[in-house]
Amino acid sequence: MRHKFIILSGLFIILLAAFFYFFLIWRVSSTLVEQTLRKQELAAKAGSKSINIFVKNLGFQTSIFATRMSIISPNTQDTPQALKNLVEGMSTTPMTGVILTDSRGIVLYGYEKPGSFAGGMDISDREYFKWAKGASEGEIYVSAPINSRLGFSEGRYIVPLATPVIKEGKFNGVLVTAFFIDEITTQYLDELKIRDNTRIYLIDKEGVIISSPTEALLGQNYLDYIKNSNIDGSNEIYETLSSALASDTAGQIHISLPDETKSGTLTRFLIGYAPVELDNSRWVLAIATPVSDALASLTPLYFRDLGIIGLVVLVMVTLAVYLDKMLGILGNESKAAKTEKKVPPSRTGDKA
Q1: CB of 143 within 8 A of CB of 128?
Q2: Per 3-state DSSP, what percentage of the chain is helix, strand, and coil (rounded to 5)?
Q3: Which CATH number do you get for residue 124?
């Protein structure tokens, strides 16, 4: 009976240790998730600030450049070289190029990083040109992202910054600089990743993805994509994402979303986001990491500790079995000794 009590006590201790171990793993995992969400929110705020600083600096450069005589009174000798100098002076930034139009919206000269391109394109239908016709000198219009239809950047997402060119108090054209959305992500935001599989997205106020590491999502309205999907909880997901896009402050989301790198399989993501306010335009910067990647650092510890626990259990079970056998042997020997004492000694010399 005693040895059974020892074995049961040992098993109870093992189960108790296992319970506390898995509880500790759960607590560490929860803490790591919270820390990841916080880090990504801070990273999104830092990224938003970096974008703002770059755009404001480019806007300032554009407005100052529009007051040069080679821009106010363009000519074939000075203007192309001036535009080239502007672009090459910002070659280490995401700026892609610059164009100068006349008062009708016809491109006179243009220059991009790969080189100059021919004018003649009519951009009078662009919102930034319509705005510039009524704007004052020095004002800047930050356009919503558009697909470029000019020069070497044709077909890529760009953000134009426009300022009016004023000559003798009258509107004389528009000077437009632009930068690539994907390059601003590469140069300013990639360093914010906390894991190799962290994804960085830029989304406009309507829910259209304007920068994504997954090409299939680029240009897609993600809110419509979720709303029209058949995934579980699509309405709740839609409401959560809509609230984040409309928020004026940074925040965190722990949510399951389709993972386009895994054929749309629902995957839990940790997301930190922050608004990017750019005068006439508004985006949201979102930094997302799969939960499995965020917890990857725990995997080696988990298997190591699980192995240690398994070894301890094996040793204790082996020890318990050994003790059980030893106690059984000792018990049998004790019974045998008691039995021998009860047998009366034989009397020598007695006759039958």
Answers
A1: yes
A2: 50, 25, 25
A3: 3.30.450.20
Q: Residue 8 above 70 pLDDT?
A: no
> What total of structural domains would you count in the chain?
2
What's residue 187's pLDDT? 84
**What is the average per-residue pLDDT within 73-102?**
92
Say what the pLDDT of residue 264 is. 83
42 and 70: one domain?
Answer: no
254, 272, 297 — which closes off a domain?
297
**Domain-located, residue 9:** no
Residue 177's pLDDT band (boundaries 50, 70, 90)? very high
| Residue 50: pLDDT band with limits 50, 70, 90 | very high
Residue 110's nearest CA partner among 102, 101, 162, 85 is 101
Whether 93 maps to a domain, the answer reads yes
**Which of 180, 212, 241 corresponds to the end of one domain?**
180
Distances (CA, A) of 253 to 257, 287, 295, 313, 344: 11, 10, 16, 40, 87
- CA dist 235 and 231 (Å) reads 9
Q: What is the DSSP letter of 192?
A: G
Domain assignment present for residue 253? The answer is: yes
Lowest mean pLDDT among 77-86, 170-179, 339-348: 339-348
Q: In terms of Cα–Cα distance, which of 291, 118, 94, 249 is closest to 187?
A: 94
DSSP 131-145: HHTTPPTT--EEPPP
pTM of the predicted model, to two decimals?
0.74
Q: Examine residue 228 and state whether it is found in any structural domain, yes or no.
A: yes
In the predicted model, what is the mean pLDDT of the chain?
A: 82
List pLDDT tens digits, range 240-262: 999 999 999 999 999 999 988 88
The boundaries of the domain holding residue 163 are: 66-180
Burial bucket for residue 237 (CB in 10 Å: 0-12, 13-18, 19+): buried
CA-to-CA distance for 174 and 136, rounded, in angstroms? 11
Residues 172 and 248 in one domain: no
Conformation bin of residue 340: beta by default, left when phi > 0, alpha when psi is -120 to 50: alpha
Say how far apart CA 62 and CA 69 lie, in whole Å: 14
